[in-house]
Every structure is written in structure tokens, then in C-alpha cells.
Amino acid sequence: MTYLDEELIEDFKKINTPIVIFPKERHNSIVQKINDNIRFSGSQIAWSLLKKSTYLGATTSQASLKSLNKKIKLIAEGDVFFVGDSTDNAYSIDVKDLSLALRIFSTIPQHTYITQEDQSWIACISFEGDIYFAIL
């Protein structure tokens, strides 16, 4: 577990919000499914190649985070998955806690990918400070 994982877990404990830590095998399965179904350009998803992708703005903008929260809540049911390229764990939170989770994950220096089991959509809070969303 990286220090970033430890910080994330501690942040969720501080706000008394449940978060599920997936076993390594589940983490690897989610990452593999993303890699199998989505094209990348370098370390990021090739957003321009996705027909239904949207750039939502900078991670420093509360409006961008609110927009991402709204887009996800319109289509998500149940648990939302978070996978990062600098954290060792994949996480799951209930969609009702999404706004809190987005605020926490937006402070982590990594590419954080957000999706659900069926991966019919994906979002990213990028290391570079951008927020993207796409229907797949």
C-alpha cells in the first residue's frame, strides 16, 4: 500500500464515509478491462477517439467537480469504482457519497479513473488537472 492509499483511507475515515478496498485481483481485473476496451495515448485515455467524450474543466474548479458529480449520478446506480495509477488499491463507494469521494480523489496526484462494473461510462481526474467524462 502506498502512502497515497493510506492518506485516502484516512481521509474517508475522517469524514466517516465508507469505502471498500478491492483485493489486488479485483483491482487488476478492473484495470485489464479498461485497457482491453479503451485506447490510450501515453498515460491517458485517448479522449479525442471516443465519440461521446466531454472535457469538463480543471480539477481546481468546483463547478467542474459538480458537473462530473451530476453526470455520473444521472447514469450510475449502486457502487462507483476508483482506480488510480499511483495508488495500489482500487476502491468502491456508494454513488450517494460520490461528491465527497470526488473532492478527495481530486487532490491525489495521479490519473484517477472512475467507472462502474459494466464500464458503460468512464471518467478521469487527470494528473495534469483536467476532468473528462465519456459514455462508452
Written overview of the protein:
This protein has 136 residues and is of the alpha+beta class. It has one domain. The protein is 35% helix and 29% strand. The protein has four helices and nine strands. The strands form two sheets. Strands 1-6-5-7-8-9-4 form a seven-stranded antiparallel β-sheet, with helices on both faces. A two-stranded antiparallel sheet has the order 2-3. A hairpin with a 2-residue loop joins strand 2 and strand 3. The radius of gyration is 14 Å and the shape is globular.
Shape, please? Answer: globular
Number of beta strands:
9
Distance between the termini: 31 Å
Number of DSSP helices?
4
The stretches of 5 or more residues where confidence is low (pLDDT under 50) are none
Structural class: alpha+beta
Explain briefly what this protein structure is.
The chain is of the alpha+beta class and 136 residues long. It has helices at residues 3-14, 24-37, 62-75, 98-105, and strands at residues 20-21, 40-41, 44-45, 52-58, 79-84, 90-94, 112-115, 121-125, 130-135.
